[in-house]
From TrEMBL:
Residues 360-762 form the TonB-dependent receptor-like beta-barrel domain. Its main location: membrane. It comes from the Bacteria. This is TonB-dependent receptor. One of its GO terms (molecular function) is siderophore uptake transmembrane transporter activity. Transmembrane segments: none annotated. Residues 236-269 have a biased composition (Low complexity). Gene3D superfamilies: TonB-dependent receptor, beta-barrel domain (2.40.170.20), TonB-dependent receptor, plug domain (2.170.130.10). GO terms for biological process: siderophore transmembrane transport. The keyword Transmembrane applies. GO terms for cellular component: cell outer membrane. It is found in: Cell outer membrane. PANTHER family: HEMOGLOBIN AND HEMOGLOBIN-HAPTOGLOBIN-BINDING PROTEIN 1-RELATED, TONB-DEPENDENT OUTER MEMBRANE RECEPTOR.
Length: 801
């Protein structure tokens, strides 16, 4: 028997409706949805066959719900928000988080020579993008959780937050919140084995996860429907809409939007359905273990031309092997009818090692020479994070409290030599760099949300303590030992009002104080930064499937602690304008921006969506990386480069491809962003923000995996436009446009598992960069570099039951 239940969730502000008039609809709709879904979950827990084996219990083959949770989260969230959920990730054929990120609207992902990625939103500086895991800021610097290589099976959803509200500290570029898988009562086991092949080398990967009810139970008692004509009841509980994750509360970014727009798994309000005793609702768990191996690296050709002649040319190759081990346990359950507790932890350990070699020729005052660089590189990272989320429901409000802590340690060990030969004479200069870092973070946050009215309010506070320790030994420099403490205190609040034309207005204010104390002479004891972040958001439904939204906010982006620390990190290999040293800047000021986002969002039948968003940023004290010549070495330093205006247009769409004559399960996901900026003051006045691409675009066509068997596959194309690299006066340059193409094909063997072959980075994805700078003799030299990444082949077998 197949049961199809069509559900159209109540929509806040639908045309011709007022919030108060809609309240009576919620209990009945949620009662029907919950009754059907609870019976389906109970049947599944008692042994729904699917491919997993027979059962004597009555069963439903499937439940089809028309409204996808990710669509409703986007429609009902405060602020401009795009949600990529589990189904989207599977359709994208994504193998890691990095594969998903470069297919998100307005996100610019650039691989680095050592196998990492640089992430920019709206093309702004990479530190202008805020990265969250489960709504919590992760550790800074390289010691953070390896976001780029997290297995896609670990991800529940990724949220692109374009506009801030009071609840979280915004970012001038935007926020990416990665929500990890959570514990559920549905039993599921996933096993995946993979080999990835590149440069003639192989690296194995293994992933295992299991989720379900804790203990020997598994059946969920069916809820009984309330009478057909229930007595008047309070509206469904709703929390204040947050556009993104409650970055400071630890809650998933769209948790509040989920309450506003109930989806397939939502439960009915207490007034419509009787509450189950706490002991009748089983605790659930999730456990994931992964061992991930990668072979990474790049080939780079550099060339310098001065006066029409080649004065330097080199070829470099980096070959590294990376391994990451991760353990992710989760535990959810009810302490009582009013209290719920979630415990979570993430433990990772990563090792990265390999060689960097380059050889080249050149001409200088001493004549023609040969140059040779050989370096061994070792890196080890350990990361531990644990947290507890407690929720208590009062009669007309909800209190959410989160306590979390993390510790990260990493060690970089580099040793190499640079040899320069003039004929038979040669000189070798050895060098070494040893860096040990540790970062500890504690955070306590709480949020109180009203639930008795269709118009919402919320209040919150947070206290955060972060401690950083750095010990550096570098050849030719004195040892560096630094200890920095950072204390953050936050209070915030927001409220919602009803306006004419079915419009709702949400206004909020966030007050934040940051105190930095450290042993670094460049960080005076007691450096204090305080700011207010006001925000306004309106949402106006035009009809049931189309709405218009506007966000206005003031955002302050404080510099990264690592950017403030006054220390130098030497370049890997020979120093050049395209391979500079990096140094800190204790005098770096906060970046402040007024932000405006406005756009239309529309649902597409049966489960698609399309959105168009216009954004404007007026930025003061813009932070960007400047490359300059200091003595005889090129250095890169983050600096305040003046004021700027940033604007652009973003469009995205998800839809089926039945209209092209393909099967109903074929999907299309596509997005495009046109980006523009102009420095209005400073040394680069009239230029664009350094590194901002003129456009980004991606398209993914996929036939998703079906448990009933058959082939699946897809193709993904991502494009990144050219970018200016104007930094210091007289130094100009550009990154050329680039493209990346991925293809995968697989098949499902019913009751056994699946196989998949993927070829990623078809065409080598050349990264071309050109720089021009004064040569000291009244002319200009041109430096060009071309980095290529060899195609990677994945072979995967797995099963899910």
């Amino acid at each position: 028997m197949r049961l199809e239940f069509l559900f159209s969730p109540a929509r806040s502000g639908a045309a011709g409706e007022r919030p108060a008039a809609r309240r009576a609809e919620w209990p009945l709709r949620e009662m029907l949805v919950t009754t059907v879904l609870t019976h389906a979950v109970a049947a599944s827990a008692q042994g729904m066959p699917d491919e997993r084996g027979a059962s004597d219990a009555p069963q439903l083959e499937a439940v089809t719900v028309t409204a996808r949770r990710s669509i409703e989260q986007r429609f009902f969230a405060t602020g401009s928000l795009v949600v990529v959920d589990r189904k989207d990730i599977e359709n994208l054929g994504a193998f890691s988080v990095a594969d998903v990120l470069r297919q998100l609207p307005g996100v610019q992902v650039t691989p680095t020579a050592d196998g990492g990625v640089e992430i920019r939103m709206r093309g702004m500086d990479r530190n202008a993008t805020q990265l969250l895991i489960d709504g919590q800021r992760v550790a800074s610097g390289k010691s953070q959780l390896p976001i780029d290589q997290l297995p896609s099976e670990l991800i529940e959803r990724i949220e692109v937050v374009r506009a801030p509200t009071a609840e979280f500290s915004g970012a001038t570029g935007g926020t990416l919140n990665i929500v990890l898988r959570q514990a559920t009562i549905q039993r599921e086991t996933v096993i995946r084995l993979t080999d990835n092949h590149v440069w003639g080398r192989n690296a194995g990967q293994a992933f295992f996860s299991k989720t379900g009810p804790l203990g020997g139970g598994g059946a969920v008692p069916a809820l009984r429907a309330a009478p057909a004509a229930p007595a008047p009841a309070a509206p469904a509980p709703k929390a204040a809409e947050a556009p993104a994750a409650a970055a400071d509360s630890g809650a998933p970014a769209t948790a509040q939007a989920e309450e506003r727009a109930p989806a397939a798994t939502d439960t009915a309000p207490a007034a419509a359905l009787p509450s189950l005793p706490a002991d009748a609702q089983p605790w659930s768990y999730f456990l994931a273990v992964s061992s991930t191996g990668y072979v990474v690296g790049s080939d780079t050709h550099r060339r310098t031309v001065d006066g029409g002649s080649v004065v330097a040319e080199s070829d470099a190759s980096g070959r590294y092997r990376r391994s990451d081990f991760s353990l992710v346990p989760r535990l959810n359950g009810r302490l009582s009818a009013s209290d719920q507790l979630a415990l979570r932890a993430t433990i990772t350990r990563g090792r990265f090692s390999g060689r960097y070699d380059s050889q080249g020729t050149g001409v200088d005052a001493g004549g023609a020479y040969n140059a040779l660089t050989a370096e061994s590189y070792g890196y080890e990272r350990r990361y531990l994070q644990a947290g507890a989320d407690w929720t208590h429901r009062f009669a007309d409000s909800k209190l959410e409290t989160t306590l979390s802590g993390s510790q990260s340690r990493d060690e970089v060990d580099r040793a190499g030599s640079f040899t320069q030969s003039y004929g038979a004479a040669s000189a070798t200069s050895p060098y070494s760099f040893l860096d040990n870092r540790q970062e500890d973070l504690w955070s306590l946050s709480s949020k109180l949300t009203g639930t008795s009215s269709a118009l919402l309010w919320s209040l919150g506070a947070q206290a955060e303590y972060r401690s950083l320790g750095v010990n550096t030994l570098s050849s030719g420099a004195a040892p560096v030992s630094l200890n920095v403490d950072m204390k953050r205190h936050v209070v915030w609040g927001q409220n919602e009002w009803e306006l004419p034309a079915n419009t709702t207005l949400t206004a909020g204010l966030r007050a934040e104080t940051l105190l930095i104390q450290g042993a670094d002479a460049g960080l005076p004891d007691g450096r204090r930064m305080s700011f207010l972040q006001p925000s306004l958001h309106t949402r106006t439904p035009i009809n049931d499937d189309l709405q218009f939204r506007v966000n206005l906010a003031r955002v302050t982006r404080n510099p990264s602690i690592w950017s403030l620390i006054d220390r130098s990190t030497p370049s890997q290999g020979s120093n050049s304008i395209s391979n500079p040293d990096t140094i800190g800047n204790p005098n770096l000021r906060s970046e402040v921006a007024w932000t405006l986002d406005a756009g239309f969002e529309r649902r597409l039948a049966p489960q698609g969506q399309v959105g168009v968003n216009l954004f404007v940023r007026s930025v003061k004290d813009t932070i960007a990386a400047l490359t300059t010549l200091v003595g005889n070495r090129w250095v890169e330093q983050r600096s305040n480069v003046g004021d700027a205006t940033v604007w652009g247009l973003e469009a995205d769409a998800k839809t089926g491809l039945g209209w092209l004559g393909l099967g109903s399960d074929w999907t299309l996901s596509t997005n495009a962003s046109l980006l523009q900026s102009r420095m209005t003051s400073g040394p680069n006045q009239g230029s664009r923000i350094p590194g901002q691409a003129r456009y980004t675009a991606s398209m993914n066509v996929a036939k998703p995996m079906r448990r009933t068997g058959g082939l699946f596959g897809g193709v993904a194309l991502s494009l990144t436009g050219p970018a200016q690299l104007n930094t210091s006066p007289g130094i100009t340059g550009r990154d050329n446009a680039r493209a990346m193409l991925d293809v995968y094909l697989g098949g499902v063997v019913p009751k056994l598992g699946y196989w998949r072959i993927g070829v990623y980075n078809i065409g080598n994805a050349r990264y071309d960069r050109e720089r021009s700078y004064p040569d000291g003799a009244g002319g200009f030299a041109q430096n060009s570099s071309v980095m290529t990444l060899t195609p990677r082949v994945y072979l995967t077998v797995g099963t899910q039951f």
